[in-house]
Structure formats: structure tokens, C-alpha cells
Design brief:
There is one protein chain. This protein is an alpha/beta fold. It has three domains: about 90 residues, no CATH class; about 100 residues, Beta-Lactamase (2-Layer Sandwich), CATH 3.30.450.90; about 230 residues, P-loop containing nucleotide triphosphate hydrolases (Rossmann fold, 3-Layer(aba) Sandwich). The chain is built from 14 helices and 15 strands. The strands form two sheets. It has a nine-stranded mixed beta sheet with strand order 9-8-10-11-7-12-13-14-15, sandwiched between helices. Helix 10 runs parallel beside helix 11 and helix 12 packs across helix 13. The longest helix has about 40 residues.
Length: about 450
């Protein structure tokens, strides 16, 4: 027992020595790279620059090993690992880079330098052996990542939200927005499916529901995808959009962060992306601006990645002006919550329409609401309801569930109600037949 504890203590001491040597090497290499390339090239290096930096790191680590051997000092335990961490610290995400490259990791959370969490398959866990040396190292990493994006993080602008080159979302906050540490969240975008068929294979929905949604999209039914954070709304939106297969369709996608892959899948699709203002606050492109511009691009449909503000009104107006079959997502815990929130967001627009007018607009515009949820126990994203909007009673939006998740069978079931959009499917020549009987009664 004592020998085991002694070996563990010696291993910890050697690991600490490695970190101390790594810090000294990092400072030495960073200064030399800055002299060789200049700060701008360090932020946006070319491939040749990266090779030069790798050679420089290799030479410095080898030199350290030679000096250690000559002076009888401890050698680096893992020189190759030190080389990779030094490279990642200069040009990648530092100690977080292996997590970014791990396919099972969905999100990385840094609550200060010493508490790093990951979310894998919906489960969060602490990584006790992964930490930054201090808050300045974490803050320096964030500022280096923001530099090429024209964003800043300082006391006058203590919060930032940005998109990294690989599509991941970076959110960071520092004092005075936080009480003590730099807080960082990196959310990776993982598109798990490109079609409704693939979502069926993943267990997100059933075959009958997928066939209905495919026919609804082809027939031009206006769809709203609702669910909490991480429930798979963007993946569902991408799968629905893939059903728009006609050459006659011209689709314009509008997103704050480019995540949809429809531009690669559809024959005539243009992807528009919002942009935050630069350090001087110039150059901002809002979602509202993009939706309005999309209307001038002669689209047959508009797909908005997510409505979070006043652009909800522009989306509703687009659906009411001949762009049937448009799609969007929204945060909501139930279909009715999603519809109410859509009307509330539309009230944020400068036009200042009344709540009654917006409720009527939502009732006449949105036809189907797809409700998603994430199940932490199984790690699955599930479609739990296909809700059809039927109208307005007083100031309350009404509707009916066409498919619901049966908890006893743990399966999405058709309720037996006839969807109103069947007539549109028939008029558009879209083939679809409802199940022969109510699912679960056979």
C-alpha cells in the first residue's frame, strides 16, 4: 500500500515537472513565433507557417531533452504529447483540442480554469485531470480564438458569442459579467441525420410519422419545430428540408450560425448567415435583415434556423405571402408554448402589432408543430408530438395531436385523427395514405 502511494506521489511530481517545463517552453516558443511571423500571421497562419511552427516546437522540445540529460535533470515523460499540446496551444484550442476532435463529445464547459466539464451523449461529467494553469491561460485562449473573428472580450464587452471555423459555437463571459472566473462554453454542432429515414433509424420518430412529414413538406405545409436546447431541432429541420427535392423549388436558408446542410443537398438553395458587428460595432447583419432580403431573392420557401426575436414577425409574413412550406425552429416545452412564444417574439418587432392580431396570424400561418425532447437516461432525441393547429378560440390557439408518444409502449402513435392537410396533399399530387388503423390497437 505504501509503495503504491509512493509511486503515485512520484508520478504526480513528475507530471507537475512536465507542466512546469511545458509552460517555460510555451513562453519561449510563443515569443519566437511572434518574432518570426508577427501577431496577425499567428492568428491566421498558412499551412507553410504551421509546418514551420511544428519544426520549431520539435527542435525546442528536443533541445530541452538534451539539456535535461546533460544536467541529470528529469526528462519529459511524454515529449510527443508536449509537442502536440504546445502546437494546439498556439494554433488550436489548447488542452481542449482533443475534446473538440472526440466525436462523442457534444459540449465543453469551463467554469474557470480548474473545472472542465464535457457533455457526452447528453450526460455531463467533470474532467478532474484536465485544467488550465490559471485564469489568464484560459482567457488568453479565448482572446486568441476571437481575434481572427473580429470580436473582443474585455471589461467594456464582458460577454461574447461567436462561431469558430469548424462550426462550433463559443460563448464566453468574464468579470464583471461573472463574479470571479472566465466562463467558457463550446458547443459542437453534430448533425446526426440528413434525412427523415435516418431519423427513423436513430429512433427519433416512427416510419408512419416520417412518411406523413415527408408528404407534408412536399405539399407545402408550414412547419414549426419546437423543443428545449439540445433536443435535436436543427437536425430535424435539416432532415425536413431534405424532403424538398423538386427542381422548381428555390430555398433560402437564414441562420445566425451556419449549421444546416441544405445548400449541399438541394439543387437550388442559398444559405444566408447573420453577422455580429465588429469591435467598433459596425457591419452587423441581423436575422431580420436576412429574412427581408430573402424575400427579394424569389424563393419558393424560406427556412429560418431559429427565431429568437423580432424576426418571428418577418417569418410569419413570409409564410403568408406565397412562401408555403416554410420551416423554422423555436425554443418551447410544448406545442402551445411554442405558438405562444412565437406570437410574443413577433410583438418585439418595431411594427408593434397587437397581441390579438399576432395570435390570429400565428393561427392562420403555422399548420404543424413538431415537439422534440431529449431523454437524459437513454441519450435519445425523440419526436413526442405532431400537433396540428386548428384555429383560435377567443385569444387561445387551438389544435389537436395527430401523433403522440405513448408512454406505455414508448412509441410514437397515430391518434386516429384526420389531418386537415390531407386535402392539400391530394391537390398537390403528393401520394400519402394514413395507417390502416390507429397504431397500437391492432
Amino acid at each position: 500500500m505504501a509503495s503504491t502511494l509512493l509511486a503515485s506521489a512520484e508520478g504526480g511530481a513528475r507530471a507537475n515537472a512536465d507542466r512546469a517545463a511545458e509552460r517555460a517552453l510555451r513562453q519561449e516558443i510563443q515569443e519566437e513565433v511572434s518574432r518570426l511571423l508577427g501577431e496577425r500571421q499567428l492568428l491566421m497562419p498558412e499551412r507553410e507557417d504551421e509546418e514551420r511552427i511544428r519544426v520549431l516546437i520539435r527542435e525546442r522540445v528536443a533541445g530541452h531533452q538534451r539539456r535535461a540529460a546533460a544536467t541529470n535533470a528529469p526528462l519529459l515523460i511524454d515529449p510527443e504529447g508536449v509537442e502536440q499540446r504546445l502546437f494546439d496551444g498556439l494554433l488550436r484550442l489548447g488542452i481542449l483540442q482533443p475534446l473538440i476532435e472526440a466525436p462523442e463529445v457534444e459540449e465543453i464547459i469551463c467554469n474557470g480554469p480548474n473545472r472542465v466539464f464535457v457533455i457526452e451523449r447528453g450526460q455531463k461529467r467533470l474532467l478532474p485531470d484536465l485544467y488550465f494553469d490559471d485564469n489568464e491561460e484560459l482567457l488568453g485562449l479565448v482572446k486568441r480564438l476571437l481575434g481572427p473573428l473580429g470580436r473582443r472580450l474585455d471589461e467594456s464587452s464582458p460577454m461574447v458569442d461567436a462561431r469558430l471555423p469548424d462550426g462550433s459555437r463559443l460563448n464566453a463571459a468574464i468579470p464583471p459579467a461573472t463574479t470571479r472566473w472566465c466562463s467558457v462554453t463550446v458547443r459542437k454542432f453534430i448533425l446526426r441525420a440528413h434525412s427523415l429515414e435516418q431519423l427513423v433509424q436513430l429512433g427519433t420518430l416512427t416510419e408512419s410519422a416520417a412518411q406523413f412529414l415527408d408528404a407534408a413538406v412536399q405539399a407545402g405545409v408550414n412547419l414549426l419545430v419546437s423543443g428545449p436546447t439540445g433536443s435535436g431541432k436543427t437536425t430535424m429541420l435539416n432532415a425536413l428540408g431534405a424532403s424538398i427535392a423538386s427542381l422548381d423549388e428555390r430555398v433560402i436558408t437564414v441562420e445566425e450560425v451556419a449549421e444546416l446542410q441544405l445548400e449541399r443537398q438541394l439543387p437550388d438553395c442559398v444559405a444566408l448567415q447573420a453577422r455580429a458587428g465588429n469591435v467598433e460595432g459596425v457591419g452587423q447583419i441581423r436575422i431580420r435583415d436576412l429574412v427581408r432580403n430573402a424575400l427579394r431573392m424569389r424563393p419558393t420557401r424560406i427556412v429560418v434556423g431559429e427565431v429568437r426575436g423580432a424576426e418571428a414577425l418577418d417569418m410569419l409574413l413570409a409564410m403568408n405571402t406565397g412562401h408555403e412550406g416554410s420551416l423554422t425552429t423555436i425554443h418551447g416545452n410544448s406545442p402551445r408554448d411554442a405558438l405562444d412564444r412565437l406570437a410574443t417574439l413577433a410583438m418585439m418587432a418595431e411594427e408593434r402589432l397587437s397581441g390579438e392580431a399576432l395570435a390570429k396570424m400565428v393561427a392562420r400561418t403555422i399548420e404543424l408543430v413538431l415537439q422534440l425532447r431529449f431523454e437524459p437516461r437513454t441519450g435519445r432525441r425523440r419526436l413526442v408530438s405532431i400537433f396540428e393547429v386548428t384555429g383560435l378560440e377567443g385569444d387561445v390557439l387551438t389544435g389537436q395531436d395527430l401523433w403522440v408518444l405513448d408512454p406505455t409502449r414508448d412509441r410514437l402513435m397515430w391518434t386516429g385523427l384526420q389531418p386537415r392537410c390531407l386535402a392539400r396533399m391530394a391537390s398537390k399530387g403528393v401520394p400519402f395514405a394514413l395507417p390502416l388503423a390507429v397504431e397500437g390497437t391492432r
